[in-house]
Amino acid sequence: MPSDWVCDECEQENTGDDAECVACENPRPTASPYAGYKVARVVGVEAIPKTKLRAVKVQVDDATELTIVTNARVDAGEERHIVVATIGSTVTIDGEEVEVKKATVGGRKSEGMLVDAPMLGWKGGAAGAAVFLPNTFAIGSEPPASRP
After folding, report:
1. Which of the following CATH numbers is that of domain 37-133: 3.30.70.260, 3.40.50.2000, 3.40.50.12280, 2.40.50.140?
2. Quick one: pLDDT at residue 77?
3. What sequence ranges are listed for the domain RanBP2-type (predicted)?
4. Which of 58, 116, 133, 134 is deepest in the core (most CB within 10 A)?
């Protein structure tokens, strides 16, 4: 069942079943398919000994850095921007929606997931290959709807 919502136009509270505001008939806003996805800057990569995993440290806004443990190939380069799914967001893996949760992977704390092209619905790009963006995309912003 959809959750209740508040109209952006008139601030009327509406039920989850309302497709438009009961007061002003403004349509219910649609949720972004990229809710919780952020453009992040790679600030460091550390190989985890005796595994094929890497701990990737990313900056998702001016004050927040996250560590994401992955088996994806990531190199720390000057101003490399990458797309991450933060805790609480939903990704689609093999046609199944999965909520991103804080986890321990390879003995390390992981605070999100690197996003690949299929998770974004982009054409081209392999599953499991992290999406990199030009550094013109602002850190903390949502990723674009298509490959730049």
Report:
1. 2.40.50.140
2. 66
3. 1-30
4. 58
